[in-house]
Amino acid sequence: MRTESDFLGSVTLPDDCLYGINTARAVSNFDISGKTVHKELIYELIMLKRSAAVANRDAGLLDSNVAQYIVSACDKLSSDIDMSLFPTEVLQGGAGTSINMNVNEVVCNTALLTAGRKCGDYDFIDPLDHVNLSQSTNDVFPTAVRIASIKLIRRLSDACAQLQTALQEKEQEFAGIHKIGRTELMNATEITLGEQFGSYAQCIARDRWRIYKAEERLRFVNIGGAAVGKAANNKYVFRMTELIRKESSIGLARAEYPMDITQNCDVFVEVSGLLKSLAVNLIKIASDLRLMNAEFLGEIKLSPMQKGSTAMPGKVNPVIPEAVIQAAVKAISDDAAVTYASSMGNFELNAFMPLIADSLIDSLKILTGAVLTFTEKCVKILTVDKNACGYHLENSRAYAMKYVSLIGYEAVEKLLAECENDRERFTALAEGYLQAQSGKGE
Question: 43, 65, 179, 184: which could join 389 in a potential S-S bond, CB 3.0 to 4.6 Å?
């Protein structure tokens, strides 16, 4: 066993434990949800530690051998991230300090082992003096969140493109199938099933574009801004920005006013709001498909995916739309968390960045999975029941609409009431009304 100490006291850890005293305290302090930080965020934090080691070396701030040990450690850790090394609770106080220290300690001790030293030999490589050199949680953590989010945004945008294509294919496939359109759950006028799916494709196309463009809002970072957004060593800052741009393959730019990025989280609210818009559209489309598949309508047939009841043999439920709706509801609730947490910042920092990060990344991952599942297991493989579409159209009052412009709204309304939805009788009376009007005109 080894003992690590600081001004708060001492903590005993196993000799081979890769994290240290700060992580151990965080694990003890925050036992709330049982959920740990997203792996995507850990990956980007490790990337930032690697880049910082190189930037500090190039700026003449870090010994080249120590820098190389840190770089090697980061390469090893990021190649196959072991999440057991990062046990800190997602709902942690301190604006993300616990997870930053967790990464610092794991990188440091991995670097020590690479150098042939023992874990905890911080006189040789220190988590703060070397791994965290020129950094603060307040610039590293938000930067990692932005990079992770951009990568996930790209995946979600691609997923939306696939859903849009699938809906457009159904638009073409169903172009000739006439059905009744509905407003407020009541029969309205005649449309085609293709037009209905075309409308779905249009709203997903908007979501795709909005989400794709959201990346631009996240490209400005406050890296090198240290605790409150005031620049550290300029040579380090410029080199660090260059390195993370290359490592992430994202067109990142240092914010013109880093203190703004450190203080304010409105960009995360904006992006989260766009995700909420997608969630709203997914709920609408999935709800429509669920209703059109219901036995009382049966206009489309969703592919049977699994048994629907433990009590009723042969029952099949619309499980994919239902799962998509739940995922979308979760994203909407995450948006509420991002919004409220972002409003809680004080002075030069928002202490609630861990909740903002978790909620935003959670939404991006959940919505990507939901969209892909919806596309492959619902939209692409659903079929149409032409007979059901025709039946509901024939038994609606859509046939009366063409007469409104010919004999007037009130006349059509009276005839419908008189005929009690008897199509043949209505048509005969309406045509007679037309002839009578024509005779008067002559």
Answer: 179
The dihedrals phi and psi of 363, each to the nearest 5 degrees, come to -60, -45
Name the phi and psi angles at 315, rounded to 5.
Answer: -80, 135
Supply the Cα-derived Rg of the chain in whole angstroms.
Answer: 30
Q: What is the DSSP string of 230-265?
A: ----HHHHHHHHHHHHHHHTS--EE-SSHHHHHH--
Q: Which pLDDT tens digit goes with each residue over 282-302?
A: 999 999 999 999 999 999 999
Residue given tokens 């951009």 in the structure block: 150
Q: How far out from the chain centre does Cα 200 lie? A: 19
Active site residues: 309
SS3 percent helix, strand, coil of the chain, rounded to 5, is 65, 10, 30
For residues 67 and 113, is the Cβ–Cβ distance under 8 A? no
- 60's tokens: 């003449």
The overall longest dimension of the chain from CA atoms, in Å, is: 109
Task: Provide the whole-model pTM.
Answer: 0.93
- Decide: 37 and 137 in contact? Cβ < 8 Å: no
Contacts of 150 (CB under 8 A, 6+ apart): 215, 218, 219, 248, 250
371, containing H or E segment: helix 353-374
pLDDT value of position 224: 82
Instruction: Supply 55's token pair.
Output: 């930037």
Q: Residue 348 carries which DSSP code?
A: T
Residue 150 carries which side chain, given as an amino acid letter? I
309-332: per-residue pLDDT in tens?
779 888 899 999 999 999 999 999
Cβ atoms of residues 51 and 240 within 8 Å: yes
> What mean pLDDT do residues 391-398 have?
91
**Do 53 and 71 form a contact (C-beta atoms < 8 A)?**
yes
Neighbours of 259 (CB within 10 A): 15
* Nearest-angstrom CA–CA distance, 42 and 90: 12
Residues 6+ apart with CB under 8 A from 273: 335, 339
* 376 exposure class (CB count in 10 Å sphere: 0-12, 13-18, 19+): middle
What CA–CA distances, in Å, run from 32 to 90, 98, 390, 396?
9, 14, 55, 56
Query: Tell me, what DSSP letter sits at residue 129?
Result: I
Amino acid at 100: N
